[in-house]
Structures are given as structure tokens and as C-alpha cells.
Amino acid sequence: MSCNYFATIDFYNIYKLLNKLKLLIIYCQSIIGATLIRGASLFSVELITVIKHQALANKDGN
Known about the structure:
mainly alpha, 0% strand
């Protein structure tokens, strides 16, 4: 009986540790994801601005 008791405690602690690890991974992924999304949106804004300036320059040139 005591052997089973210790085994359950070990599995429970491992389970808790894995849950903490999972939360940490999710947290890191959300930070990385938010950074990538922010970077992509900034890049697209820059790209749109460049295209707009290029279009205006072409219009003025013609």
C-alpha cells in the first residue's frame, strides 16, 4: 500500500510540473506570436507607404 501511495505522489508531482511547463510554453508562444504579428503589421504598413510613395512619384513623373 505504501508503495502505491508514493507512486501516486510522484505521478501527481510530475503532472503538476508538466502543467506548469505547458503554461510556460503557452506564455512564451503568445509573447513570440504577438511580437511576430506586431512585426508583420509594421512591415505591411511600411510596404504600403513605400508603394504609395512610389505610385505618387510615378504619377508626378508622367
